[in-house]
Each structure stands twice: as structure tokens, then as C-alpha cells.
Amino acid sequence: MQAKPFLKWAGGKSRLLTDIEKSLPYDFNIQFDTYIEPFVGGGAVLFWILDKFPNIKNVIINDVNSDLINVYKVIKKKPTKLIEYLKVLQNEFHSFEFDDEGRKNYYYEKRALFNSRNSNDLEQAGIFIFLNRTCFNGLYRVNKKNEFNVPIGSYLKPQICDSHNISQVSKILKEVKILSGDYQRTINYINDKTLFYLDPPYKPLNKTSNFNSYSNSQFNDKEQIRLRDFCKLLDKKAYWILSNSDVKVEGSEDTFFDDLYCDYDINRVKVKRFINNNSKSKHLSELLIVNKIEEEIVLIHN
Length: 302
Fold this sequence. Notes:
GO terms for molecular function: S-adenosyl-L-methionine binding; sequence-specific DNA binding; site-specific DNA-methyltransferase (adenine-specific) activity. Helices cover 39% and strands 16% of the residues. It has helices at residues 17-23, 28-31, 44-52, 66-77, 79-94, 100-116, 121-134, 163-173, 221-234, 256-260, 294-301; strands at residues 34-37, 58-63, 176-180, 194-198, 239-245, 265-274, 281-290. The two termini are 36 Å apart.
């Protein structure tokens, strides 16, 4: 079984993979050997790329969320010890199946321990996964103090330790370079056979839809413009694909991304998303933006 995302992650790209594949350069599996993902998040695209395209030899991932990157590093280097610790957390949490108060107390004790940042890297990674599997809707959200503040979910016996998948993820991460910090540093790993996939925090569709804060730094319009400028730096050096929200929804005159990326190919795709933190879902329009340098890259390779 191939490795799959080990976290629940709001806005994950599993449902977008077919459209991302259509956006790849036609000779991707032959001519490209480097894949860079500056906003790795839950890693859905990463694991898909590693499974589907064995010619990719150089893989670099990055995220500004240092707690998230710590999990990737621990899975890569200490999978067995992490599995052992997750089994302890799982058994302890499941013991409160018929004790609502005990289950809540256990969850909030672990959340407080996580926010104290006093644990070692192994325990911090384990608690991160525990919180992800037991919090409300698997959300990841922090406040300005970088404190995880999602309340407990309604799960009685969730799977906290997926031993087989952690082992598989560890194997495929062995040759992956893992960075943590500002996405711009990833440009140092570029060559003329590189694909960038950029999945930044989405621009909110309205004032109430921005419910996720993946770090204590805000990715506002100024940051969206800085990212566009970074993409310009990549031009004629690499092929890139960028995803974001489609703020020009029906009835809206918001042309923010249409104006910002007017020099590039902007594709609107329909993606099934859950709405308002409940079980209802609908198809939303999202953007896949690609640069127009495929022809130049092919000429370089030839």
C-alpha cells in the first residue's frame, strides 16, 4: 500500500489531484527530476508525486509551521519510537470511551502539554498527531501566541496510531529534504528540471470563511502579492503550479487573482469541499495557475 497523508488537513488536495495531473508538463515523467513543495501541509500532493513519478530523485518540502515539520522529521527518523508512543496515547484515550469527563480532561491536558513546548521532539510529534485525530473536525488552528486552540471532537475511539502508514511514510521520506521557514529559501534548490507546487493559505472568500490559522503569522493580501513576485523569480528556471481560492465566485466582481496572475494561465476547477464545519458539502471553484514556460523548458532539455 502506498503512503498516504498521516494527518487530517483542512483544504487538503486529494480531490484536486486529477486536475493537478492535467496541469503537469506533458514530459514531466521523463524530463523532470526535482520536485519542490514550499507549503507542504498535509502532503497529499507530495505522496502522490512520490508514488506516481519514480523518476523524481530530488524532493524538497517546506512549511512555516515548525510543529508540523517536526512531525515529518520524527516520522522520517524515528518511526518505531513514534508508533510506540502513539499506541500509548491511543490506548489511554480509548480507555475513556464511556467517560466523557475523563476523555475531555485527557484531551485538554495533552493540548496544554503541546502548547507548553516542553516535550522532546518525539513526544511533541506524537501529541500533534493525537490532537489532529481527536480535535473538532481534525482542524489545525493556532492563536497569535502560537497556541493550538481547537476544542475536543466527538470521536470515541478514533485511530490515533496507523502503524503501517507511518512506516510507509518513513520509507519514502528517507531521501526527502525537509525544511522549515519562509518558502522563499526553496529557490536555492532549483535546477532546470524542477517542478514547484505552491499551495499557500487560501485567500478567504469572505470575512467569515477564514477559520484556519496554520501559523501565528497572517497570510494576507500583501503576502499573496509577495508570493506572486516569488513565482516571477521562478520563471524561465522552473515549471510551477499554484492553487488558491477563486474569489471571483458567481455574483462577485473580485478580480484579485485574475489581475495578480494576468500573465499566466488561470484554470478554474470544481472541487468538492465541506462547508461551515459540518457534514454538508458542495462543489466550489478553485484556481490552478501555471506559468507559460513549458516550451522554453523543453528547448533547454533538448
